[in-house]
Design goal:
The protein has 338 residues and is an alpha+beta fold. It has twelve helices and nine strands. Strand 6 and strand 7 form a beta hairpin. The radius of gyration is 42 Å and the shape is rod-shaped. Bound molecules: 3,4-dihydroxyphenylalanine (DAH).
Length: 338
């Protein structure tokens, strides 16, 4: 009997070693240690032994059971770990970066906006934000454009209600700033503006402006010209210059259109500047005294200048973009070039 037990133990150990899944191990455990298992049957056979042999054999059977339970138990742990590892491997999500993904870049308009902001901040301007959905009060009335003024017609736009519209110009931000802070003021306010223009090579219903406003004692047009001349140099080239042409904006008096010397031909005349040597980049002027007093600033004490740069235009000039619609289309072939 002892020999039989030793053989059963060795045989079972060999089978345990060879088993690769938990289910087979459970079956083997039942086969050997279960109610009608091989070792259990041997245990039952003890009753047929003599009184003197029974305790010795009983001890051997028990030791065999303890040993096999230990071996099988260890194998269970091993298999469970293995199965868990396999499951984890299968369910693993690779959160590491796919090396094939190409890195995105800033849109050329954003590059230009940041460059402009850097320039003005380096000159001590603050950057303010102003709502895209604006009231006619800020977009027109306070800018000295009363309801019957033809300038409203020119900026016929997207009205939400009679008195609420998508702003047509960042100039509304001037008023909001002057209501909140008093001179000295040096601010820029970049943002999107909207006009109900048909999209074509030179118009888009949404475009970008950077408004500028400086109000203090003794501000003159020389200050305006000096800042805009440096701005043109910063954006185009060291040799760039600006010229002022008389114009009209209801919120500035006097008003000017500002041209920069063409960065492509250096002022000689080319396709980009239509042979004139100059490219219009912004509107500007000295803040109208009605606008100042409307915001509670005494125009006999303070003067100021304001300007509105067309960011899309500057970007187009710098990069030679000849269709205003293209930067809005999100075409990867266009964006990849920057
Ligand atoms: N708001 C004007 C426009 O959209 C541009 C402009 C002109 C802004 C003169 C100004 C300014 O601040 O002084 O056409």
């Amino acid at each position: 009997m002892e020999q039989k037990i030793i053989e059963l133990v060795n045989e079972t150990k060999a089978k345990v070693n060879a088993i690769a899944c938990a289910k087979d191990l459970t079956d083997l455990k039942v086969e050997v240690l279960g109610k009608s298992g091989a070792l259990t049957l041997i245990l039952r056979g003890l009753k047929d032994l003599s009184e003197s042999d029974r305790p010795k054999m009983g001890k051997i059977v028990n030791e065999a059971r303890v040993e096999l339970e230990k071996v099988i138990g260890e194998k269970f742990v091993q298999l469970e770990r293995k199965e868990l590892d396999e499951k984890l491997m299968k369910e693993k999500i690779d959160i590491s970066l796919d090396k094939k993904t190409t890195l995105g870049k800033l849109h050329p308009l954003n590059v230009m906006r940041r460059k402009a902001i850097d320039f003005f901040v380096s000159m001590g301007f603050i950057v303010t934000d102003s709502p895209e959905i604006e009231t006619t009060y800020y977009n027109f009335d306070m800018l000295n454009i009363p309801p019957d003024h033809p300038a409203r017609e020119m900026q016929d736009t997207f009205f939400v209600t009679d008195k609420i519209l998508l702003r047509t110009q960042t100039s509304a931000g001037q008023i909001r700033t002057m209501e909140q802070i008093k001179p000295p003021i040096k601010m820029i306010s970049p943002g999107r503006v909207f006009r109900s223009d048909e999209a074509d090579a030179t118009h888009t219903p949404c475009f970008h402006q950077i408004e500028g406003l400086v109000v203090d004692k003794g501000i003159t047009m020389c200050d305006l010209k000096g800042i805009l001349a440096s701005f043109a140099k910063h954006f185009f080239s060291e040799n760039s210059s600006v010229r002022f042409r008389p114009s009209h904006f209801p919120f500035t008096e006097p008003s000017v259109e500002v041209d920069a010397s063409c960065p492509h031909c250096g002022g000689k005349g080319c396709n980009v500047c239509k042979g004139t040597g100059w490219i219009e980049i912004l509107g500007a002027g000295m803040v109208n005294r009605h606008v100042l007093s409307g915001c509670g600033i005494d125009p006999d004490v303070y003067t100021g200048f304001a300007f509105g740069v067309g960011l899309d235009r500057i970007t187009a000039i710098c990069h030679g973009i000849n269709d205003a619609r293209v930067p809005f289309e999100g075409d990867i072939r266009f964006l990849k070039q920057f």
